[in-house]
Amino acid sequence: MSAATTATGSLFARHALLPQGWADDVLLQWDDAGTLTCVEAGLPAPAGTERVDGVLLPGLPNLHSHAFQRAFAGLTEHRSAEQDSFWSWRALMYGFAQALTPDALQAIATQLYIEMLQAGYTAVCEFHYVHHQPDGRVHADAAEMSLRLVAAAREAGIGLTMLPVLYQASGFGGKPAQAEQRRFLNSVDGLLSLIGRLRHDGVRVGAAPHSLRAVPPEALRDLLGGLHGADASAPVHIHVAEQQREVDDCLAWSGQRPVQWLLENAAVDARWCLVHATHLDAYERRALARSGAVAGLCPSTESNLGDGVFDAEAFVADGGHWGIGSDSHACVDAAEELRLLEYGQRLTKQRRNVLASAAHPQVADAMWLSAVAGGARASGRSIAGLRVGQQADFVHLAAFDDAGLSASQRLASHVFATHGARGVRDVWVAGQCRVHDGQHAGAGRAAEAFISARAHLLEHR
């Protein structure tokens, strides 16, 4: 499209990471909806157009978030069982979830989403399961908690895909839910009604059957039928094969491993995101790659909980798609998630630059582009990078000690050698600058509300 196209916003970048790789002297223009109408390289800077002389990256989607868990990040780092694990951590998490109020959820999420923007994320998929009051009673407005998350995203200015969670059982075979899970429970019809309400309010929405242990087969079937009957493109996210115990329990219940069972009993395709998928055998890995589904990897949370290491090298070699999420928000830093993912591969393979590719031998380039593409697919939104037709979401890296470095070397330094300095300078979402010089306009107000909400949770959990 010609650079002369009428646009409502424009930016000129000295260096920009396009889907095919780095380009110089790039003009970006977008329309009233924040959709890119022009991405052209090799042009002189037009008079009056804002210019960035550093490195411009496509905004990174965060494909897996439990926003309320930001309030207790760092507060579970003490031994609560002789063999501490995901399962003992989950018991602590339930205590915080029980004390959560609508006001607290909105305050926590607003703070979190601002932190995400300041860290280089421009969109988030919110895997939301705390629907009801602590005793399980429905709020006067059944969508109350979901709408608080929508309000938080709008206040922060981050892109949002809402994923209301279906949760019905405490274990495989439809084991009755525990008292601590009452806030999470919904019928299929109840969840579909919630999804319809959010869609009516203009929210990009999908659904999240929580896991195979929490959603019986017939409920999974009915949920998918209702979801895709109303919106054939709606994304579906599910926790799967995060823990070895989950694999063992699924084998005892069905005679199959969880990803094997899912692929053989649901129409898993490019609309799906299988979150974690840590424990796969070779058959499951190849079949998942063929399905077109995204593997939703959350390296900081998976490290924090001792989940294990996803074999990303083999999955990519099989043609698989992946993206990253911050999950429990022990870390809110897009670059650090990529670093941890690559370092996990290095530790298990005993090699370096594992996730580089023939097209992108600089590993940071390859990983950033893959995470953008996979995150966009999981989001069900047009946020797949700096090209015409996609949303104008981009990140400008600050220039610290990078004199003489190429654009690719600057990104590599951001991912692998930040030395504790915040590398993100400016962030745009749908053509609107949400972070300028590393700061979000609402950060101070959000931080005060967050501190108050966290104090309430700690007092009442």
Q: In CATH terms, what is the fold-level topology of the largest domain? A: TIM Barrel
Number of helices: 14
What is the CATH top level name of the largest domain?
A: Alpha Beta
Kindly report how far apart the N and C termini lie: 56 Å
Biggest sheet strand line-up: 3-2-1-4-14-15-16-17
The share of residues in helices is: 25-40%
Word description of this protein:
With 461 residues, this protein is of the alpha/beta class. The longest helix has 18 residues, at 443-460. It folds into 2 domains: 9-59 and 384-443, Urease, subunit C, domain 1 (Roll); 60-379, TIM Barrel. The N and C termini lie far apart (56 Å). It contains 14 helices and 17 strands. Helix 2 (102-118) runs parallel beside helix 3 and helix 2 (102-118) packs across helix 14. Strand 11 (272-276), helix 8 (282-291) and strand 12 (294-297) form a beta-alpha-beta unit. It has an 8-stranded mixed β-sheet with strand order 3-2-1-4-14-15-16-17, covered by helices on one side. Strands 5, 6, 7, 8 and 9 form a 5-stranded parallel β-sheet that branches. A 4-stranded parallel β-sheet has the order 10-11-12-13.
